[in-house]
Each structure stands twice: as structure tokens, then as C-alpha cells.
Amino acid sequence: MSAIASAPHRPVLADLIARPSSRARAFAVDAGLVLAGAALVAVLAQVSIPLWPVPITGQTLGVIVVGAALGARRGAAALVTYMLIGLAGLPVFADFIGSLAAVAKPSFGFVIGFVFSAYVAGWFAERAWDRRPVLAFAGFAAASAVPFVFGIPYMAVVLNVVMGLDLSFVQILEAGLFPFIVGGLVKAAIAALAIPGAWALVRRADARKR
User: I need a labelling partner for 82 at 20 to 30 A (CA). Which of 22, 62, 91, 110 fits?
Assistant: First the structure.
């Protein structure tokens, strides 16, 4: 495990696609990538299957792809941006919701968790796990689990303390975890095919330039 932790950071997809020639341009490129990442998650958030109290959406797939493509810091920054513009009122959350009142929704803890999920996906990408489907799937599955660490306790507080429903621990898991396990694995698998595939295309394009 220590060998993995100390592994050097390697370029992620965004580093190869966008190659700025100056610091000023690098800042502009990074800002553009962060905004693009937030926009992608906002679009996939609208791919939604209604489910109480938390809908099934395409957000997690977007979070993983953004984190892996941009790297840990830019990926997390993209999800912080996504969260803040949603709280500011832009309808970027699932079902075109966007307002400060979203913090009172049972699902908002998952939005917080997305920031850390993107960072984890980027962390694995910076260690080249995203270039092989098997390793990518392992890393992305781990990243997919992160939102539940934040989302389930947050949901439990909103449902039981704020709304006074008095749900049991098992009922909380039935509402906020069990319906999402298969979908989370499928999204991790899709990302584990898409990101290595993108790497192959980038390498092929680079080879043609030489």
C-alpha cells in the first residue's frame, strides 16, 4: 500500500489534450476544464429515475469521468463549482433543481460526497490506474462508494431528525444504498471502458503527428 501511496503523479487525459504554453494560459485552461467538468455533471444529473428519497441519476458517472480526466485537484474543484452554482440558484441538480434550499434535501449529502469522489477518481488516474480497464474499474468502484460515506449519514439526519420519520438503520440503507449498488458498479464499468479508450485515442493521435 505504501508503494501505491508514494507512486509519482502521472499526466491525466486533460494534461495531454490541453497543453498551455504559459502560466496565464494554464490558469485559463484549468478554469475552462473545471467549468466543463461541472457542466458535464450538471447534464448527467438530469438523466434521472425518480426514487424516494434519493433519485437514481447519471451524476456518479459524470463525477468519475471528470475526476479521472482532470485529475484529483481539478476534478474536486469542478464538483465544488457544481455544488456552489447549484446552491446559487442555477438548476444543475437532479430534476433541474437549484437553490440554497437544496441543503435540506435528503440527497444533498451525496452532492457533498461527489467532491471527494472526484478527488479519489483523479488520485487513481494520476497513478495510471485509468489506463487499464481492470485497474480502472477497481479505482472507479472505490470512487463510486465515496458519496455514500457522506450521503447516507446526511440523509439519515434529514429524514429522522429534520423530518421526524424515525427510520431504522436497515430502512435507511434500503432507501439510500441498496438500490444504487448495481447501478454504481455499472457506471464504474462504463467509465473503466471509456477512459482507457480515450487514452488509446489520444496515443493514436499523438502517433500520427510524429
Answer: 22
